[in-house]
Structures are given as structure tokens and as C-alpha cells.
Amino acid sequence: MVERVTSFAELAAKLEEKTFLLKNNAQTAVATSAVKVQSTAKTKFGTYQPGVGGFPAWATLAEATIKQKERAGGGEDPLIGHYLSKSGGRAGGKLRGSILVQIGVMEATVGTNDKIGTYQEFGTSRIPPRPFLRPALYQNQSEIMMAFRKAMLDTLNGR
User: What is the full DSSP assignment across 98-145?
Assistant: First the structure.
């Protein structure tokens, strides 16, 4: 809808109002998108992941590692030994629980504060990469774009 303004002061006030709305709506889009990426990343554990968006499929564990994990009660899960809780159940999820969101002004970071997460995400000389953060971002691209489209439309409609 086109709004008629009769003075530069009125135009400036309208632009300031739209700028404020856009900042608030975009900040909401940033925050909701980051939480969605975090949620998706947390679902990656428990099964081998296929390749997605140029990120490799998770390599199968070496036979010796599988046997070591089975002796420890962990089974074949690529990350189970690290994300079991102290009591042995899955509820505590150390690596899964380390996936955090930090929201700033017009930016957000989704990552892990656990060095094992970095090793799994990028691999090492002995561990092949088993990425979970970057594929989560890739898989949510369309939802992130929709969140920002909504922010723009809401702003243009005065919401």
C-alpha cells in the first residue's frame, strides 16, 4: 500500500518507523533461523548421515573401533561413546548438548564448545569428517530465506 506523505518531516518519520520494524523483524528471523539450525544439528546423532550439500557421508567406523565401543556398551554409533550421559543412558548427550546458539545484533552463531565436535565436524588425521553443523545450515537454507522474506513483508505491511 502506498502511503501519502505531505512533508519531509513526515517522510523521515515514516522511514524511521519502517527501519525500526525491519530491524526487529530481521532480528527475529536471525534468532528463529539459528534455533532451527541448532535443532537440526542435534538430530544428526545416532545414525550414520548421508552426504548432503557437498558435505561427505559419515564414514563407517573401523572394525577395531566398533569392537572397542561394543565392549564399552556403545554399539556401532559413530558418536555414541562421546554423547552418552555419565549414567550410560542417551539422555545427557554431551556432544548433542554442546551445540549452542549465540544471538547477537543481526547475527547468530550455532556451534559447539566441545573439541570433539570440531574433530567430528572437520575430521583429523585419524578421524574422517562426520559433519553435523554445516549440513544442518545447508538443509535449512530455504526456511532461513523464508524467515527473511517474512520479515520484509511484515515490515512493508507495517507489522
Answer: TEEEEE-SS-EEEEES-HHHHHHHH--SSS-----HHHHHHHTHHHHH
